Amino acid sequence: MQSPHRPSLLRKMNVRKVLEVIQSQGTLTRADVMRCSGISAPTVSKAVSALLDAGLLEERETAEFSVGRPGKLLQLPRFSAQVIGVVLDWDYCSVVASGLDGHLHEDKLDRFKTPKTYSELIETISGKIRHLVEKENIPALGVGITVPGLVNSNDGRIFLASNLHIVDGQAPAVDIASKTDLECILVQKSTSLSLSEKTYGAGQAMDDFINLDVTSGFGMGVFTGGQLLDGQHGLAGEIAHITVEPEGGRVCGCGNQGCLETVATDLALTHSVSQRVGKELEFDAIKEMVQQGELDITPELDRTIEYLAIGVAAAINIFNPSNIFIASRLFDLSDDVFDTMTQKAKSRALKPSSSSCDIERSKGNKYLGAVAGIINHLANGLGPRLT
User: Fold this and answer.
1) pTM of structure
2) Which SUPFAM superfamilies match (predicted)?
3) Which of 123, 266, 325, 364 has its CA 20 to 30 A from that of 216?
């Protein structure tokens, strides 16, 4: 027999539904929530109370000039509560605060060079989080951490980060939680960008879309049927390490040779150009020299775009999405790079799938991705989605 003190599964689902309605629609009254969700007034009232108690909603009075009896407005907290986003990457890491509405407090953005050791990484990030929380004296509901690597969703341990090996085999969310006393979640970078699109961006009304992040590795997050594709260990949709150059290809960070990740990313272009000119160059330096007419990278860029198009075509064929959002600085090198890649990808993909798939540049950002990761985790804690 179910305990009367334990909320029913349906009640949990209703609480989550109310939160999702306000996430998608913005500031609403209880009556608005009732109309948008199809849930009865008493049930909405109970769900709202639960969300207010949890700090996931706040309410404010309507304007004084409102006609009739005004209802209080419900909204996601912007300044009365916060979540922390942490971005781990091979060159720089970042810590940023955000409201639960996805409004980044960019004045609190702290970007720093990635430490050389794992222990230093954890100490540095934990210290910055504690400082951020103590300085502002605003309740922090959790921390979202993103990493460009393979994350085991079952235990939060990183299988492999091809370009950030100091975190291989580690569980940063567990270690940071122990030092900050905050709830922490670790999310693969491209998955977090997909969550960002679904929660705050163009993917809100989409059930089937893909987010590709090829700024360092070849990361892919997939929504299919309105659900994030996960798999046994959270590795579903991983195509970065498909072999595309079996003979003579560059050794990948995973240990294999000729992976898609070694030829179809921003870092792949940087490596190939650096090899030709005989010195290590960063992407921004290459971009500046290209724009000044001091460096011709046509062969390297053409090759990188060709392989990126192969990866995009494979994603279209396998998942049949309505949209693909791509994050890459390659498209900043020339006005026609994005269109060229899109044409090549569509010509390689199956026509029934490619003809109905829109390929777009991602408008999300890595900071909002980390925030969306913890917001999604908090929503999951409320209960399963009510469809």
Assistant:
1) 0.85
2) Actin-like ATPase domain, Winged helix' DNA-binding domain
3) 123
